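As noted in the main text, all predictions were made from sequence alone. Below is one such record, for Caspase domain-containing protein.
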Amino acid sequence: MLVRICTVLLTILALTTSALAEKRFALVIGNSNYATAGTLPNAKNDAVLIEQSFKAMGFETKVLIDADEDTFGAALDDLASQHDDTDVIAVYFAGHGLQKDGINYLVPVDAKLKSESAIERETISLNTLIDIVKPVPISLIFLDACRNNPWADRMIKTATSKNRDISVRRGFAVVRPEGDMMITYATLPNAVASDGAGNNSPFARALARHMGTPDTEVSVLMKRVTNDVLEETLGDQRPQQLSQMKREFYFRQTDGTPKRRDSLQTLLTVYPARVTAGEEVSVVADVPPSCQPLFVNLGATGKVTQIPRSFFRITSLSNGQIRYEISPGAEYGLQVEQSDPHGTNKLGFLCEPKGIVDKADIVATLRSTLTMVNEGTYSGLLTTERFGEAEFRFSEFEIQ
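Prediction:
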């Protein structure tokens, strides 16, 4: 897979009359220099890049670099005062974050976090931020956090050595947005995001790259961000959107009328790209309601294993798609066993052709699909004489 290295050219774009009439405000925080956790080189660069991007989209902006607890709290107080006359509020945070007992926390630069009990005292709860922005007509929260976290690692190690229940975890827990709100994690829940090898994180680069795309509804735009991050990280990092938005939002429109929403497409992520015995494989597939996915794994030795749809957590998304998801710790996990052959696996799905009911027809259709996958075609349309076209999508992961 090619890693795309793009230079982002930020241009002040012509805004529509509807955007000009809409009051937009963005709070952008980049915490790089932590007192007791070293430095995240790119967090401050990410904040500068994203603040410029928001400003180009007509947002009034406030940017904080290396915000301590008092500065962070004061900024949230100011944010709460924006309720009465603001149509859209966006918040972007780059820095350290962690979860305790299923609650997510953003970490100011002066946090010491000598014990688990210090988390509530020295950090900012994500729930507090959600409560502040939920009265606004549209709110967008972007969390480019959960980069390698020494506090979480130390607390997990201590709890494990003393055989205590582990209340602290790496990454963020899943939350429920309220109202017309979208919350975007730079990586999957319970996972760690990359600070990036260049001057910015993969997520910040992709978000800045796509924010100015005209006439693209935000849920579609974020799919493109997700795709770019997946490509840049070779499948190791997958952003996730949590949304209950009913209204459509466009960062930029070229005239005052909403454009037709992009047609729904299938998306697939198999995460991580490399696993060893004892680790679990995560699968996330977004498909249109018309698609009944048949999931299979083609092993390194050519063995085909069907993965029943009942193994997946199935969710209706706000953009009309259906999400099928297996994540670590799920009731039916995909755990790698010692006996599993090392090598490249190809996991994915075929949208069952309409009208197909005979098992022999299903097997024949699947066999044709896997032939194409073995030949290097991992996504596309399979054309059958009796049942028409059927979409398929596969991805690789390696057992080491």
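The CA atoms of residues 253 and 393 lie 32 Å apart. Confidence is low (pLDDT under 50) at residues 1-20, 257-264. These features were considered when defining construct boundaries for the mutagenesis experiments described in Section 2.9.
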